[in-house]
Write a structure and sequence with these properties.
Elements: H1 4-30, H2 33-51, H3 59-87, H4 92-111, H5 124-153, H6 157-182, H7 190-211, H8 215-238, H9 243-258, E1 260-266, E2 272-276, H10 280-288, H11 290-297, E3 307-314, E4 317-325, H12 334-394, H13 402-433, E5 441-444, H14 445-455, H15 457-460, E6 464-468, E7 475-478, H16 480-496, E8 503-511, E9 514-521, H17 553-563, E10 567-573, E11 577-585
Parallel strand pairs: 6-8
Antiparallel strand pairs: 1-2, 1-4, 3-4, 5-7, 8-9, 9-11, 10-11
Helix pairs in contact: 1-2, 1-7, 2-3, 3-4, 3-5, 4-5, 5-6, 6-7, 8-9, 8-12, 9-12, 12-13, 13-17, 14-16, 16-17
This protein binds adenosine-5'-diphosphate.
């Protein structure tokens, strides 16, 4: 044991000096007041440790060394108190009183020529001075220890761990110093010295990690947060209420992740999308400062001080997430920045997705509104045109030259086509608004199909049409107008998507408890992969885009079929033709 003690003594001196140098380097890099106080606290403590072996020197030099040690000792307490003051401020008067008390105690101790060895014989004034010095130091240190520990309770993992390390480290030092000063003969035993030396050696890493924790440790501290973050990320990407709420959650997590005190997301337009730990005005001020977004676009380069700026490349433009270090997070390492970059891409995806669904919803609404307005506005003029064309054809407006008469059927057919499209649009708009109510009544599917065929007769002329139907009626409860819309739509499509002169077959039949109308053409057909698209709103197949149409017909028809508890299905082969089968339940 005795051989070990000098080695331990030197080891303690070395690690304390290294610790002081590390805080110094950290302070030089950041140059802020808070780190300055930490340098003062740990630097002067290292001074005490280094100078203390010389305390055995006798005479005037010995006294000078004692006084210097005393001052350094008090300074180390003062430094820690001021460090605490920099994030949990003391009241001004308290700070002044404490400073004055420390100076007074220091002067008093120097004046009474306090002996170097606390266990040596003391005069009564010297005894008072010794107690005063140690009590002052202990108070300066104990108060921050308790204060910081309490403050750590509400903090995220990384900050809490740092601050507790500092508290624990200082707590250990207080214990060692108090025991050495007052425990008399116990503290002189070799075993005791050994134990305290080891304790002091263990304390040093604690103090070190509190201001400069290595990456692996920060990652370890962050681990519990990471697990919670994963869950939060899942929520962020799956349920997305709206952009602001999402951004708010994201920003809170970003700050927690790296132990930042406050954070905000600046939107692409420069406004504050979400902020955490900042007042509205503070957040606005940051957002208004162009340097942050500039830093974001300048990837990798971070602004000076304890701030990280992470770019968010949103669809609406570039924006940035800014995270400010708190009192307990004096630095952000590369690891934090990397982690934030990873997190930022998830945030970007989440925010873009919300924006996208909002935009799609708005577009859908605009489409519906347009459909409604356009269809109603078109109907009036179309009725007038069709009316006059029919009057011209019937001769009630006088006779026309033969050449003019010959184009009338085509004009009427075209206006019928336009009319049918307008009707489709009106019905589609009704369907979207939930205003399409069926007026069902007992009817005959055979008769209704024939009526529908009559309705599109003019456009059927260029094709061959066969109708296969049973001799008797097929009764079904249907809305007669809507039923005909479906059949007319299938016929119109058969004409549109098959060549002139090709055969179109309509089969009306009864299968089981269903009435069916199947329309078969020998047209271009539809590839299997495209078949699901036909029945969607505005769904058209790329290859048929040059044929006029709205893409609403089949969607509307299937909806009408399903409102009747029936269905509309397709069977088709590209190049061979298609069969659309419309079925509704029989009545009864
Ligand atoms: P529109 O005919 O007005 O485009 P529809 O909803 O009636 O809208 O039809 C949707 C799409 O389905 C059409 O654009 C066309 O590509 C395809 N289609 C419909 N009927 C047929 C058919 N009989 N043969 C081939 N393709 C068809």
């Amino acid at each position: 044991v005795t051989d070990l003690l000098p080695v331990l003594g030197i080891a303690i001196q070395v690690v304390f000096v290294l610790l002081a140098l590390a805080t110094m380097a950290d302070w030089l890099r950041h140059q802020d007041r808070r780190r300055g106080y930490l340098v003062l606290a740990l630097g002067s403590l290292a001074g005490v440790v280094v100078v203390s072996p010389a305390l055995s020197v006798r005479g005037a030099l010995g006294q000078l060394i004692t006084d210097v040690t005393l001052v350094l000792f008090l300074l180390s307490g003062y430094g820690l108190l001021m460090f605490r003051d920099s994030f949990v401020p003391l009241r001004r008067n308290t700070r002044r009183a404490v400073t004055a008390a420390i100076v007074a105690v220091g002067l008093f101790a120097v004046a009474v020529q306090l002996p170097a060895d606390p266990q040596a014989a003391h005069g009564s004034l010297q005894a008072v001075a010794l107690v005063a010095v140690i009590a002052t130091w202990a108070l300066c240190v104990l108060e921050p220890i308790v204060r910081m520990w309490i403050a750590s309770l509400g903090l995220p993992a990384v900050e809490a761990a740092r601050i507790r390390a500092l508290s624990l480290g200082y707590g250990g030092l207080v214990a060692v110093i108090l025991v050495s000063s007052f425990a008399g003969s116990v503290s002189r035993a070799n075993e005791y010295v050994l134990i305290t030396d080891v304790v002091v050696l263990l304390i040093v890493p604690l103090l070190y990690v509190s201001f400069s924790p290595p990456t692996w440790l920060r990652r370890l501290w962050r681990q519990p947060e990471e697990d919670a973050l994963r869950q939060a990320l899942h929520d962020l990407l799956t349920h997305s209420p709206d952009r602001a709420t999402q951004a708010q959650r994201a920003v809170v997590w970003a700050a927690r992740l790296v132990g930042g005190a406050s954070a905000l997301i600046i939107d692409a337009d420069g406004s504050v999308l979400a902020a955490h730990g900042l007042s509205v005005d503070e957040a606005r001020a940051v957002a208004a400062d162009p340097s942050y977004v500039r830093h974001a676009s300048d990837r990798g380069r971070q602004p000076p001080g304890s701030t990280v700026v992470i770019p968010l490349n949103l669809e609406q433009g570039n924006s940035a997430m800014v995270i400010f270090a708190g009192p307990f997070t004096p630095l952000f390492g590369d690891d934090e920045v990397l982690r934030l970059h990873q997190y930022a891409s998830s945030i970007t995806v989440g925010l873009d997705r919300v924006a996208l669904s909002a935009r799609i919803a708005a577009l859908e609404k605009a489409k519906t509104e347009f459909l409604q307005i356009a269809s109603h506005e078109l109907r009036g003029p179309m009725t007038v045109i069709k009316g006059y064309l029919t009057m011209l054809e019937g001769g009630s407006l006088g006779s026309l030259p033969a050449s003019a008469m010959s184009v009338l059927p085509l004009l009427i057919a075209k206006s019928d086509e336009a009319d049918a499209m307008i009707e489709q649009m009106i019905e589609a708009a009704r369907l979207e608004d939930g205003r399409l109510a069926l007026k069902k009544q007992q009817g005959d599917v055979v008769e209704l199909t024939e009526l529908a065929i009559q309705g599109v007769r003019p456009i059927l002329n260029a094709h061959k049409l066969t109708v296969e139907k049973p001799p008797g009626p097929i009764p079904a409860d249907v809305d007669p107008d809507r039923f005909q819309i479906v059949v007319r739509n299938l016929l119109t499509n058969a004409v549109k998507y098959s060549p002139t002169g090709a055969l179109i077959t309509v089969v009306v039949d009864q299968r089981g408890d269903r009435a069916i109308v199947a329309v078969t053409d020998e047209g271009i057909g539809i590839a299997e992969a495209d078949q699901a698209r036909l029945f969607t709103r505005f769904g058209r197949i790329q290859t048929t885009q040059h044929i006029s149409g709205t893409g609403l017909g089949l969607w509307l028809s299937r909806e009408i079929a399903r409102m009747h508890d029936g269905d509309l299905t397709v069977e088709s082969k590209p190049g061979r033709g298609s069969t659309f089968t419309f079925q509704v339940p029989l009545s009864g």
